Amino acid sequence: MNDTKVRILAAGAELFRRNGYTGTGLKQIASTARAPFGSIYHFFPGGKQELGDAVIRSSGESYADLVFSIVDGHPDIIEAIEVAFTMAADSLVATDYADACPIATIALEVASTNEVLRVATADVFTDWIERGTRNFQTKGLHEAEARQLTLTLITSLEGAFVLARAMRSTEPLLAAGRAVRTAARSMLEW
Amino acid sequence: MNDTKVRILAAGAELFRRNGYTGTGLKQIASTARAPFGSIYHFFPGGKQELGDAVIRSSGESYADLVFSIVDGHPDIIEAIEVAFTMAADSLVATDYADACPIATIALEVASTNEVLRVATADVFTDWIERGTRNFQTKGLHEAEARQLTLTLITSLEGAFVLARAMRSTEPLLAAGRAVRTAARSMLEW
DNA sequence: GTCTATACACGGATAGAC
DNA sequence: GTCTATCCGTGTATAGAC
Questions:
Q1: What is the value of pTM for the model shown?
Q2: B144 FRET partner, CA 20 to 30 A, in A8, A56, A172, B74?
Q3: Which of residues 100-139 of B touch A (CB under 8 A)?
């Protein structure tokens, strides 16, 4: 893929994640990407919405790859969950509570205002749920349990990110991690 | 309190919740509140930020009152949790997936960009956690457990709202409700 | 205290030179 | 395909009439 296009996507991802979709201007993205303003419309003729759609889908996939590489590295489910939440907490602290979920802020902003982008966020979440379900199935859970645990994991992580960023504290993440492990244990006991 | 001020606060709460803080204009708020534009600056001399602060704190308190009135109406913890998540799901469907947490969207938007508003959202979450902890203590849990369960409840609800609004589905809320009940049961068994 | 008009910056988008 | 200049709407904020 073209180099400038990659920089524009990266800048958009970073700025949307931190400042939100409506809170980020295209001029700001061009400047951050060290790209001329017109290049945005060259690579994304649909303007801000098309760029937003591309950012949501690409960063959503990257984030899933990252999380699943962690989970796959730990065959034990309980340990994998613990590591995932701990790493999320570390990463938040390391970025001064800026980098949490790459699409959550956008998802809430556009849910009731921009159908195209809402569908993009929904597609990402749907993909995460399906990947997680398959993953937990390979670790021995039945499909219904695997899906329930995946939803628990994702919703807990997302909610913990909201509180953690607002309060500048890792406590919500650690508490959520404990709860998800409890939920997982209750499935594994049978 | 002055009538126009109340309408401005109500309009701000509704619009911020649905369209976000940066996505809502003061002119739009004045128009929705059927108030002259100048009145906003009359009642909130600090402009948009002062209005945002007031909206966060007042709607945060109202929402807590609502949720706790439900929880208090059900002495059994498990039942209270189930009712809370079911009612959240019903309310979401009734408003076409618009009205979830009144401050979550703002919280994510401002966490890294506006320290005054970030502190306002943090104060609201801190208050919720303290109220929830006291509430579960009166129902027989020790403080540490009560706080852990409260954090689990709030983070699960917040995260489920993100997915539910994006996917236009109540499944994440129902799954999160089940997980929180499991977490609660594991505390009550001892 | 209510309301209108306006200032000024920035938003997204486009045209067109190179 | 790169880059600049510009259009027009909307954003927040303010001044001041009533």
A1: 0.97
A2: B74
A3: 104-105, 107-109, 111-113, 118, 121-122, 125-126
